[in-house]
Design goal:
Elements (H helix, E strand, L loop, with lengths): L1 E2 L2 E13 L5 E13 L1 E6 L4 E6 L10 H13 L4 E7 L9 H16 L6 H11 L5 H4 L3 E4 L4 E4 L8 E6 L6 H6 L10 H7 L14 H7 L1 H12 L4 E4 L6 E5 L11 E6 L3
Parallel strand pairs: 5-6
Antiparallel strand pairs: 1-4, 2-3, 3-7, 4-6, 7-8, 9-11, 9-12, 10-11
Length: 269
């Protein structure tokens, strides 16, 4: 069974509070995009994970697809599988690629072994893997709060918006990025902005708290954001804790960028 785990971008990202459990509460709009990995899961005699494309760091026990499989195996005694993952979504980018791979692993195993788990049950497992993982279960534009795992669908037409993503070979570790953040309450809800503010004004209202430290440590990332505005983006931002920078356009961009990761596509609707 072959599926295509897609990436996401953050439209606005505010870190609002440090929790007693050590995590942080946040506010963001999560948008699924058409950039995707390729995931194939086959019945097997032994559990095997094969990785192609962008390399995944760490041992097999740290692999999020492995963690997803083990969660379901522990509860339903499913047999071993071979997981073949071709990574097109860069790592350490803030695009949620690993979380998406894990969520799609849960959904694919659910179908492959006819476990008949509901979306609510799949969400329960996804939250145990990681905060972003739950988003990819329903995989629709959503207003995210709490750890990023409490989601409310948003009604907004993204049909005529194009995306360009640029990423230099800079890997920003999420835990280190959070150490440089000072949590704060937001003055206005990102959900209200997307519902009431025109796209031409988004750059004056949406922001990503992680840009402050990332742009200070890596000025070239700030330059990429400026470059996207020069090319006609109506909004540009870093996504997640970085280091990918995206631009949103009302027309199909014709430019290309050499020597760094470059991708052009759309929002999944």
């Amino acid at each position: 069974m072959v599926v295509f785990p897609n990436a996401k971008i953050n439209l606005g990202l505010a870190v609002t509070e440090k929790r007693l459990d050590g995590y942080h509460n946040l506010e963001s709009i999560f948008l699924p995009i058409t950039l995707c990995d390729v995931l194939e899961i086959l019945p097997s005699h032994t559990l095997t994970i094969k990785n192609y494309g962008f390399n995944i760091d760490g041992n097999i026990e740290q692999n999020l697809c492995y963690k997803a499989f083990k969660l379901l195996q522990n509860d339903f005694n499913i047999p071993p599988v071979t997981i073949i993952l071709h990574k097109n979504i860069p790592m350490g980018a803030g695009l949620g690629g690993g979380s998406s791979d894990a969520a799609f692993t849960l959904k694919t195993l659910n179908k492959l072994f006819e476990l008949n788990l509901s979306l609510s049950q799949l969400s329960h497992y996804a939250k145990r893997i990681g905060s972003d993982c739950n988003f990819f279960i329903e995989n629709i534009p959503a207003y995210a709060t709490q750890k990023g795992d409490e989601l409310n669908p948003i009604s907004y037409s993204f049909n005529n918006i194009y995306i360009v993503i640029l990423k230099k070979s800079i890997h920003i570790h999420t835990a280190e990025a959070y150490q440089q953040i000072s949590p704060h309450k937001t003055l206005y809800s990102f959900k209200e902005i997307i519902e009431k503010i025109s796209t031409d004004e988004w750059k004056n209202y949406f922001y990503n708290d992680f840009e402050i430290s990332a742009f200070s440590n890596y000025p070239e990332l700030k330059a990429l954001k400026h470059y996207l505005y020069q090319q006609g983006a109506f909004y540009a931002s870093m996504t997640g804790s970085g280091s990918a920078i995206y631009g949103l356009f009302k027309f199909e961009p014709k430019f290309t960028v050499n020597d760094i990761f470059f991708w052009k596509g759309k929002i999944l609707v």
